[in-house]
UniProtKB/TrEMBL annotation:
Protein name per UniProt: Putative integral membrane protein
Domain Rhodopsin intervals: 62-301
Cell compartments where the protein resides: Membrane
Membrane topology: Multi-pass membrane protein
PANTHER family cross-referenced by the UniProt entry: INTEGRAL MEMBRANE PROTEIN-RELATED (PTHR33048:SF47), PTH11-LIKE INTEGRAL MEMBRANE PROTEIN (AFU_ORTHOLOGUE AFUA_5G11245) (PTHR33048)
Organism: Eutypa lata (strain UCR-EL1) (Grapevine dieback disease fungus)
Classification lineage: Eukaryota, Fungi, Dikarya, Ascomycota, Pezizomycotina
UniProt xrefs under Pfam families: Fung_rhodopsin
Protein backbone atom coordinates (compact mmCIF):
# COMPACT_ATOMS: atom_id res chain seq x y z
CA UNK A 1 0.00 0.00 0.00
CA UNK A 2 2.61 2.55 1.02
CA UNK A 3 6.35 2.00 0.54
CA UNK A 4 8.63 3.34 3.25
CA UNK A 5 12.19 4.02 2.10
CA UNK A 6 14.48 5.80 4.52
CA UNK A 7 15.74 8.43 2.12
CA UNK A 8 14.16 7.98 -1.28
CA UNK A 9 14.87 4.25 -1.34
CA UNK A 10 18.37 4.25 0.15
CA UNK A 11 19.25 1.87 2.95
CA UNK A 12 19.41 3.33 6.43
CA UNK A 13 22.47 3.22 8.65
CA UNK A 14 22.91 3.92 12.34
CA UNK A 15 24.12 7.43 11.57
CA UNK A 16 20.93 8.16 9.69
CA UNK A 17 18.99 7.78 12.94
CA UNK A 18 20.74 10.93 14.15
CA UNK A 19 18.22 13.73 13.85
CA UNK A 20 18.88 16.76 11.67
CA UNK A 21 17.69 20.23 12.79
CA UNK A 22 14.40 19.93 10.88
CA UNK A 23 13.64 16.55 12.46
CA UNK A 24 14.51 17.83 15.91
CA UNK A 25 12.14 20.77 15.43
CA UNK A 26 9.28 18.45 14.43
CA UNK A 27 10.15 15.48 16.64
CA UNK A 28 7.07 15.90 18.84
CA UNK A 29 4.62 16.54 15.99
CA UNK A 30 1.77 14.09 16.33
CA UNK A 31 -1.64 13.26 14.94
CA UNK A 32 -2.25 10.62 17.57
CA UNK A 33 -4.71 12.67 19.68
CA UNK A 34 -6.89 13.10 16.58
CA UNK A 35 -6.54 9.39 15.79
CA UNK A 36 -7.44 8.25 19.31
CA UNK A 37 -10.34 10.70 19.60
CA UNK A 38 -11.88 9.78 16.25
CA UNK A 39 -11.32 6.04 16.55
CA UNK A 40 -12.83 5.81 20.05
CA UNK A 41 -15.81 7.94 18.98
CA UNK A 42 -16.36 5.87 15.83
CA UNK A 43 -16.08 2.61 17.78
CA UNK A 44 -18.67 3.70 20.34
CA UNK A 45 -21.06 5.08 17.70
CA UNK A 46 -20.80 1.96 15.53
CA UNK A 47 -21.33 -0.42 18.44
CA UNK A 48 -24.38 1.52 19.67
CA UNK A 49 -25.89 1.55 16.17
CA UNK A 50 -25.11 -2.12 15.54
CA UNK A 51 -26.58 -3.07 18.93
CA UNK A 52 -29.74 -1.13 18.07
CA UNK A 53 -30.00 -2.89 14.74
CA UNK A 54 -29.44 -6.29 16.29
CA UNK A 55 -32.27 -5.55 18.70
CA UNK A 56 -34.47 -4.40 15.83
CA UNK A 57 -33.51 -7.49 13.82
CA UNK A 58 -34.34 -9.77 16.74
CA UNK A 59 -37.79 -8.17 17.03
CA UNK A 60 -38.43 -8.31 13.29
CA UNK A 61 -37.36 -11.96 13.09
CA UNK A 62 -39.97 -12.70 15.75
CA UNK A 63 -42.59 -11.22 13.43
CA UNK A 64 -41.47 -12.80 10.15
CA UNK A 65 -39.99 -16.05 11.55
CA UNK A 66 -36.97 -16.07 9.22
CA UNK A 67 -33.55 -14.51 8.83
CA UNK A 68 -33.04 -12.44 5.67
CA UNK A 69 -29.78 -11.56 3.89
CA UNK A 70 -29.63 -8.05 5.37
CA UNK A 71 -29.68 -9.47 8.90
CA UNK A 72 -26.54 -11.53 8.31
CA UNK A 73 -24.70 -8.88 6.30
CA UNK A 74 -25.25 -6.06 8.79
CA UNK A 75 -23.89 -8.28 11.60
CA UNK A 76 -20.83 -9.12 9.46
CA UNK A 77 -20.28 -5.44 8.69
CA UNK A 78 -20.37 -4.70 12.43
CA UNK A 79 -17.73 -7.36 13.08
CA UNK A 80 -15.55 -6.01 10.26
CA UNK A 81 -15.72 -2.40 11.42
CA UNK A 82 -14.82 -3.34 14.99
CA UNK A 83 -11.81 -5.37 13.85
CA UNK A 84 -10.71 -2.58 11.49
CA UNK A 85 -10.91 0.14 14.14
CA UNK A 86 -9.16 -2.13 16.66
CA UNK A 87 -6.29 -2.62 14.20
CA UNK A 88 -6.02 1.13 13.65
CA UNK A 89 -5.86 1.60 17.42
CA UNK A 90 -3.04 -0.94 17.69
CA UNK A 91 -1.24 0.75 14.77
CA UNK A 92 -1.58 4.08 16.61
CA UNK A 93 -0.12 2.48 19.73
CA UNK A 94 2.95 1.40 17.76
CA UNK A 95 3.50 4.71 15.98
CA UNK A 96 0.80 5.66 13.48
CA UNK A 97 0.46 9.45 13.55
CA UNK A 98 4.13 10.01 14.45
CA UNK A 99 7.03 10.82 12.14
CA UNK A 100 9.09 7.81 11.08
CA UNK A 101 12.21 9.18 12.74
CA UNK A 102 10.24 9.68 15.96
CA UNK A 103 8.96 6.09 15.90
CA UNK A 104 12.45 4.68 15.30
CA UNK A 105 14.14 6.96 17.84
CA UNK A 106 11.74 5.83 20.57
CA UNK A 107 12.06 2.15 19.66
CA UNK A 108 15.15 0.42 21.11
CA UNK A 109 14.45 -2.49 18.76
CA UNK A 110 13.88 -0.31 15.68
CA UNK A 111 12.32 -0.73 13.17
CA UNK A 112 10.16 -3.28 14.99
CA UNK A 113 7.44 -0.80 15.96
CA UNK A 114 7.41 0.67 12.46
CA UNK A 115 6.96 -2.81 11.01
CA UNK A 116 4.13 -3.58 13.46
CA UNK A 117 2.45 -0.26 12.63
CA UNK A 118 2.22 -1.11 8.96
CA UNK A 119 1.31 -4.72 9.61
CA UNK A 120 -1.89 -3.47 11.25
CA UNK A 121 -2.44 -0.89 8.50
CA UNK A 122 -2.08 -3.71 5.96
CA UNK A 123 -4.65 -5.81 7.86
CA UNK A 124 -6.97 -2.78 7.89
CA UNK A 125 -6.75 -2.29 4.13
CA UNK A 126 -7.30 -6.00 3.44
CA UNK A 127 -10.38 -6.14 5.68
CA UNK A 128 -11.76 -2.87 4.31
CA UNK A 129 -12.94 -4.59 1.12
CA UNK A 130 -14.84 -7.17 3.17
CA UNK A 131 -16.56 -4.45 5.19
CA UNK A 132 -17.65 -2.44 2.18
CA UNK A 133 -18.90 -5.47 0.26
CA UNK A 134 -21.12 -6.33 3.26
CA UNK A 135 -22.54 -2.79 3.31
CA UNK A 136 -23.04 -2.71 -0.47
CA UNK A 137 -24.75 -6.11 -0.45
CA UNK A 138 -26.92 -5.08 2.49
CA UNK A 139 -28.15 -2.12 0.48
CA UNK A 140 -28.68 -4.21 -2.65
CA UNK A 141 -30.80 -6.83 -0.89
CA UNK A 142 -32.69 -4.15 1.01
CA UNK A 143 -33.50 -2.31 -2.24
CA UNK A 144 -34.47 -5.58 -3.91
CA UNK A 145 -36.98 -6.33 -1.18
CA UNK A 146 -38.31 -2.78 -0.81
CA UNK A 147 -38.62 -1.85 -4.48
CA UNK A 148 -39.84 -5.26 -5.74
CA UNK A 149 -36.99 -5.41 -8.25
CA UNK A 150 -38.16 -8.74 -9.66
CA UNK A 151 -41.31 -7.04 -11.03
CA UNK A 152 -39.39 -4.55 -13.19
CA UNK A 153 -37.14 -5.96 -15.93
CA UNK A 154 -34.96 -2.83 -16.32
CA UNK A 155 -34.58 -2.42 -12.59
CA UNK A 156 -33.75 -6.11 -12.29
CA UNK A 157 -30.97 -5.81 -14.91
CA UNK A 158 -29.57 -2.74 -13.17
CA UNK A 159 -29.68 -4.56 -9.82
CA UNK A 160 -27.80 -7.58 -11.17
CA UNK A 161 -25.24 -5.32 -12.86
CA UNK A 162 -24.59 -3.69 -9.48
CA UNK A 163 -24.41 -7.09 -7.78
CA UNK A 164 -21.85 -8.48 -10.24
CA UNK A 165 -19.80 -5.27 -10.13
CA UNK A 166 -19.63 -5.38 -6.31
CA UNK A 167 -18.53 -9.04 -6.31
CA UNK A 168 -15.83 -8.40 -8.92
CA UNK A 169 -14.68 -5.28 -7.04
CA UNK A 170 -14.42 -7.24 -3.79
CA UNK A 171 -12.18 -9.93 -5.25
CA UNK A 172 -10.12 -7.41 -7.21
CA UNK A 173 -9.62 -5.06 -4.27
CA UNK A 174 -8.82 -7.82 -1.78
CA UNK A 175 -6.38 -9.47 -4.19
CA UNK A 176 -4.67 -6.12 -4.81
CA UNK A 177 -4.00 -5.50 -1.12
CA UNK A 178 -3.10 -9.13 -0.41
CA UNK A 179 -0.67 -9.71 -3.25
CA UNK A 180 0.98 -6.36 -3.92
CA UNK A 181 4.05 -7.76 -2.16
CA UNK A 182 5.70 -11.16 -2.63
CA UNK A 183 5.64 -12.78 -0.13
CA UNK A 184 2.61 -10.96 1.25
CA UNK A 185 4.22 -10.23 4.64
CA UNK A 186 7.09 -8.45 2.90
CA UNK A 187 4.91 -5.35 2.93
CA UNK A 188 5.66 -4.81 6.62
CA UNK A 189 8.85 -6.91 6.98
CA UNK A 190 10.75 -4.95 4.33
CA UNK A 191 11.68 -2.14 6.74
CA UNK A 192 14.30 -4.32 8.43
CA UNK A 193 16.15 -4.59 5.12
CA UNK A 194 16.78 -0.84 5.17
CA UNK A 195 18.96 -1.18 8.26
CA UNK A 196 22.15 -3.14 7.48
CA UNK A 197 22.71 -3.83 11.17
CA UNK A 198 19.21 -5.28 11.60
CA UNK A 199 18.61 -8.87 10.42
CA UNK A 200 15.47 -9.45 8.40
CA UNK A 201 13.21 -11.87 10.34
CA UNK A 202 13.67 -15.36 8.94
CA UNK A 203 16.24 -14.10 6.44
CA UNK A 204 13.33 -13.27 4.18
CA UNK A 205 13.65 -11.47 0.85
CA UNK A 206 10.90 -10.07 -1.34
CA UNK A 207 9.62 -7.22 -3.42
CA UNK A 208 6.57 -4.96 -3.59
CA UNK A 209 4.80 -3.69 -6.70
CA UNK A 210 2.07 -1.09 -7.08
CA UNK A 211 2.70 0.61 -3.74
CA UNK A 212 2.39 4.28 -4.74
CA UNK A 213 -0.65 6.30 -3.69
CA UNK A 214 -1.89 6.32 -7.28
CA UNK A 215 -1.97 2.52 -7.29
CA UNK A 216 -3.60 2.37 -3.86
CA UNK A 217 -6.27 4.83 -5.02
CA UNK A 218 -7.49 2.53 -7.81
CA UNK A 219 -9.66 0.23 -5.62
CA UNK A 220 -11.12 3.35 -3.99
CA UNK A 221 -12.02 4.89 -7.35
CA UNK A 222 -13.76 1.68 -8.46
CA UNK A 223 -15.56 1.56 -5.11
CA UNK A 224 -16.72 5.15 -5.61
CA UNK A 225 -18.22 4.19 -8.97
CA UNK A 226 -20.14 1.42 -7.21
CA UNK A 227 -21.34 3.83 -4.49
CA UNK A 228 -22.81 6.24 -7.02
CA UNK A 229 -24.42 3.37 -8.91
CA UNK A 230 -26.00 2.10 -5.67
CA UNK A 231 -27.28 5.61 -5.05
CA UNK A 232 -28.92 5.72 -8.48
CA UNK A 233 -30.86 2.48 -7.95
CA UNK A 234 -33.36 3.76 -5.33
CA UNK A 235 -33.56 7.18 -7.00
CA UNK A 236 -34.48 5.50 -10.28
CA UNK A 237 -37.07 3.31 -8.56
CA UNK A 238 -38.61 6.25 -6.68
CA UNK A 239 -38.82 8.35 -9.84
CA UNK A 240 -41.14 5.71 -11.34
CA UNK A 241 -43.62 5.84 -8.45
CA UNK A 242 -47.01 7.48 -8.84
CA UNK A 243 -46.42 9.98 -6.05
CA UNK A 244 -46.54 13.74 -5.86
CA UNK A 245 -43.22 15.59 -6.09
CA UNK A 246 -42.96 16.39 -2.38
CA UNK A 247 -43.29 12.73 -1.38
CA UNK A 248 -40.78 11.71 -4.04
CA UNK A 249 -38.32 14.29 -2.73
CA UNK A 250 -38.87 13.02 0.80
CA UNK A 251 -38.10 9.44 -0.20
CA UNK A 252 -35.06 10.50 -2.22
CA UNK A 253 -33.78 12.43 0.79
CA UNK A 254 -34.08 9.28 2.91
CA UNK A 255 -32.03 7.18 0.53
CA UNK A 256 -29.78 10.11 -0.42
CA UNK A 257 -28.00 9.74 2.92
CA UNK A 258 -25.57 7.61 0.94
CA UNK A 259 -24.32 10.80 -0.70
CA UNK A 260 -22.39 11.59 2.48
CA UNK A 261 -20.52 8.29 2.20
CA UNK A 262 -19.81 9.04 -1.48
CA UNK A 263 -18.37 12.44 -0.60
CA UNK A 264 -16.19 10.88 2.10
CA UNK A 265 -14.95 8.28 -0.40
CA UNK A 266 -14.12 11.07 -2.84
CA UNK A 267 -12.36 13.00 -0.07
CA UNK A 268 -10.33 9.90 0.77
CA UNK A 269 -9.16 9.62 -2.83
CA UNK A 270 -8.19 13.30 -2.94
CA UNK A 271 -6.36 13.15 0.40
CA UNK A 272 -4.56 9.98 -0.67
CA UNK A 273 -3.43 11.30 -4.07
CA UNK A 274 -2.74 14.94 -3.20
CA UNK A 275 -1.88 15.12 0.49
CA UNK A 276 -0.52 11.71 1.57
CA UNK A 277 3.26 11.29 1.89
CA UNK A 278 3.79 7.71 0.77
CA UNK A 279 7.58 7.88 0.46
CA UNK A 280 9.44 9.76 3.18
CA UNK A 281 7.08 9.85 6.15
CA UNK A 282 3.95 7.70 5.65
CA UNK A 283 3.48 6.77 9.33
CA UNK A 284 2.66 10.46 9.84
CA UNK A 285 1.29 11.19 6.37
CA UNK A 286 -1.36 8.45 6.16
CA UNK A 287 -3.06 9.39 9.45
CA UNK A 288 -5.69 11.71 7.92
CA UNK A 289 -6.45 9.20 5.17
CA UNK A 290 -7.06 6.47 7.75
CA UNK A 291 -9.23 8.75 9.90
CA UNK A 292 -11.38 9.40 6.82
CA UNK A 293 -11.48 5.65 6.19
CA UNK A 294 -12.94 5.05 9.66
CA UNK A 295 -15.30 8.00 9.19
CA UNK A 296 -16.61 6.60 5.91
CA UNK A 297 -17.16 3.19 7.50
CA UNK A 298 -19.14 4.81 10.31
CA UNK A 299 -21.23 6.76 7.79
CA UNK A 300 -21.80 3.62 5.74
CA UNK A 301 -23.14 1.82 8.81
CA UNK A 302 -25.56 4.70 9.36
CA UNK A 303 -26.36 4.99 5.66
CA UNK A 304 -28.21 1.68 5.63
CA UNK A 305 -31.79 2.98 5.98
CA UNK A 306 -33.17 0.18 8.16
CA UNK A 307 -34.15 2.68 10.86
CA UNK A 308 -36.08 4.65 8.25
CA UNK A 309 -37.85 1.67 6.71
CA UNK A 310 -41.14 2.36 8.47
CA UNK A 311 -41.14 5.90 7.12
CA UNK A 312 -40.32 4.66 3.63
CA UNK A 313 -43.01 1.99 3.71
CA UNK A 314 -45.65 4.48 4.85
CA UNK A 315 -44.99 6.55 1.75
CA UNK A 316 -44.69 3.38 -0.34
CA UNK A 317 -48.26 2.40 0.57
CA UNK A 318 -49.47 5.40 -1.39
CA UNK A 319 -48.09 3.76 -4.54
Amino acid sequence: MFSIPCTQGAKCTMSELSLNPHQKAHFNDTKQPELWGCLIAFLVINDVVIAGRLWGTWRSIGNRSRVIAEDVLIVLSGIFVNVIIANLMVATHYGLGLHIYTVNSRDPDYPSNLSKTFMHIWITMVLMSGFFVCIKMTLLFFYKRLFLVANNSRLRIFWWANFIYVVVWFFGSTSFYLFQCKPVQWYFIQYFERFPNKPVPGGMTGQCDATTVHHVALPLVFSLISDFSLLLLPIWAISKLRLNKSKKRGLMAVFGIGLIACFLEFARVLILVIHTDDKDDPSYGVAIFLILTAAEETTAIHGYPILLTKFALKVWKVY
